[in-house]
Amino acid sequence: MNETSDTNLRSHLGKMHQMIEFLYPSQKNQIQPKSKLISIDEKKKLDEAAIEAIVQDSLPFNHFQKSGMKIFLSVIKYGYQGPNRKTVRKRLGILYQQHRAFIKKQLSSVLHISLTTDVWKSPNNEFFICLTCHFLTSSYVNESFILSFRRFDDKHTGQKFRSFIDNELRKMNLKLKVSSITTDGGSDIKSATLGTTFGMRLSCAAHNLNLVVKNALWLFNKTKSKKFKSSSNTTDSKQTDSDDDDDDEAISVDDNEEVHEDVSDDDYDSDISDQHDFSKDDSTSDILSDENASDISDNDEVEDDDEDLSPLNGSKQRQNDEQTPIGITAKPSDLSLIVYNLLQRVRRLVRFIRKSSVLYRYIRNQIRLKNIEIVRSAHEQNLKPVKLNNAVLDFRIRWNTTYTMISRFIALSSIITDITVLPSIEIGLKKKQYEKLQQLSFSRFDWSILAALKNVLFPFYRATTLLSGSKYPTLSIAYSVSTGLKNFLTKSKDDQPLENSLKQLLLAKFSYYFEQEISWDQKRATLIAAFLDPTSYQYLTDEDIGESERTLLSEFDVTQSFDRLQIDTSVTTTMSMSTSTPLGHQRTQNSTTPQEKLTLDEFFRMCEMPSASNVTTNSIKKQLSFKEELCHYMSTAGSSSKFSEYWCQHEMLLPQLSQFVKKYNCIPATSVPSESAFSIAGYLQRKARSSLSSTALRYSMVLRE
Prior knowledge:
Residues 228-327 are annotated as: Disordered. Its main location: nucleus. This is HAT C-terminal dimerisation domain-containing protein. The protein has five domains: 1-33, no CATH class; 40-83, no CATH class; 93-204 and 671-703, Nucleotidyltransferase, domain 5, CATH 3.30.420; 216-458, no CATH class; 512-664, no CATH class. The model is unreliable at 226-300, 302-323, 325-329, 564-595 and 614-619 (pLDDT under 50). The chain is built from 28 helices and five strands. The chain has helices at residues 7-16, 25-30, 40-56, 67-76, 85-107, 158-171, 187-193, 205-217, 235-253, 306-309, 315-323, 332-355, 357-380, 400-411, 413-421, 431-439, 444-466, 475-490, 497-516, 520-532, 534-537, 542-562, 596-606, 626-636, 643-650, 655-664, 672-684, 694-703, and strands spanning 113-121, 127-136, 142-151, 178-183, 200-203. The protein is globular.
């Protein structure tokens, strides 16, 4: 380089800074002015839209720089080039800070919030902790934010987690507003949230249902036989089941499942919900959906146990099953062992079908032929056809997948029987494969157990779905669900001995996890939430209503004496979610969830409980005392089946009671919001994006709402 030459400097000034006057005449001739095909403001607007698409759809940061996307962009907007990776990464950091400031401002006018938290291990073997915030808006709509989603490098102890949560709350000025925190049964998270630092701790209802079903019926493991004792002396049983809690937490931390799209045909109904049409909340976690079980990875599937299966294979075992007296179900451990071994055989057959491409194609063709017949028959009867789906395998971290496996397996019973009892030579298998298929055949007793399992587990399956919503109060529904399930388990039918015995097994574990293990504070909060929700109020007994009334009166006296209850008889400051909001805040304010009351009615009918009837009374237009507010609420709660609709109409008349509503009915009954975030994070850090940094993942998770 010539130290005395200024040619490069002049060229730089002219090309990069538009200082044409410094260029030599020869350099001026080389510069051709570029015509501006798109304005700066328009490009900025398009870049923002592109970055929002990247965040919301979990796209790679260089998505709009790919060759095919460039061609597409040139067609729809000639001259526009999408943001590159560096621009997206830089912009995400700015949007993240804006979003945090927005959340902080929005929550400044909220009096009561509730939290959920959980820990997750990513595909890159990094641990993350998620903290979500839940509250009721001025229109009594359940709203939630991801407060924090950060990599956790410290040792996993209760004190470390407690410090982290406390620090996050202090940053957002929420320390004094927390009413509760909902977690699963993991020992570290449980230890971090005990006490009153973050309000009352609630045990996740969905995890408790998971433990009830898995441990009662031995879905995946043989439970050590330890006798349950009375509630006054439950040391042994608590020790046994607390170990199960820890195991469940360890599994959930390793939950690397991705979000799968439903590939079923819209012209069909699902084979596991043909007679029970429930309206689902849009935000119900994908990891709880039965349809997502169609693409379960082998890593999550239950391992085959040849040692345990060997005595159950062959004609000898089938003969024993045929001769098994129904009276054997009187002994719980015997029935649990039968269920365990039967499910192992089901898994083994499904796995065998999957490994054999010839057999898999044959079964798929048989399903196609049967679906054609189903469509024809349904068309003749003017009904909607119910689709048969391929058999699936379950996985340990979600008991719902076991229900899906059983349901689909039963739907394919005729095909399963054909290929196992007398397999056709047309299949084209080898001799050893035919012999193995015959060994895996199922007796009439086997099918009767599977049918009983499906019938008994269906209310639990629907209960999990009901508790997994985020757009409506779930703590109040938790009380109704618990009541309905207990009623279902205590009802017996003389003509269904197998179902009765399965109910007894489930009832023992249900009583333990939902009565003995649940704290008094959680039971009290759940009852109050159910009382204050018109949707669930109508299903309460007179005893429940009386207890709720006494509890609220007592708490009101306490809060009044300490002057801690802030009562605002005017309309609460509206929290606008649509004006001047940064990326990720374009939310709908639909305050109703589809057919809330109808959903509970369907669930209660399934559990053999009577439906509630609506009650209407004249409104009162005078200032009421707190006790009068309670009386007025109890007389008008039946006039509306929608939570938000009722309290928007009665907030002015019941200002004191509405404060308790905002305190208790924002509490989530499950830690599903955190679990859902982990499923999304797993998809974000999929193999195609394995290089995504933990900071970029945090930004994307907080912004992706």
